[in-house]
Design a protein that fits this description.
This protein has one domain: 434 Repressor (Amino-terminal Domain) (Orthogonal Bundle), CATH 1.10.260.40. The chain is built from 6 helices and no strands. Helix 1 crosses helix 3, helix 2 crosses helix 3 and helix 4 crosses helix 5. It is elongated and about 55 Å long.
């Protein structure tokens, strides 16, 4: 397995659904939302990357794809952490690591 370039952001899980999963299934957003039991708008926000994959949505997507919720939550966590690290890097640099005596 090739190492991921740490300077490139991880893909938002919605992008994977939008670009790979739904086209691979020849499925519309409307049909996928119906199967997932969510509104088309809610699914569209995830697909557009403007909404995070919540634990509830991860359960739905994991069942839909057959790979479990954990995969989708890990992808979302990696995406969120990468962006947070860059957003508050200066603040984090000023925090001293504490050690027990």
């Amino acid at each position: 397995m090739a190492a991921r370039d740490k300077n490139r952001p991880p893909l938002h899980p919605g992008e994977i659904l939008r670009e790979d999963i739904l086209p691979g299934l020849s499925m519309s957003v409307t049909k996928a939302a119906e199967i997932l039991g969510v509104t088309r708008q809610a699914l569209h926000r995830v697909l557009a990357g403007t909404a995070a994959v919540s634990p509830e949505m991860a359960l739905r997507i994991g069942k839909f794809c057959g790979n479990g919720a954990e995969v989708w939550l890990r992808m979302q966590a990696a995406y969120d952490l990468w962006h947070a690290e860059r957003r508050i890097a200066g603040e984090i640099a000023g925090i001293k690591t504490q050690r027990a005596a």
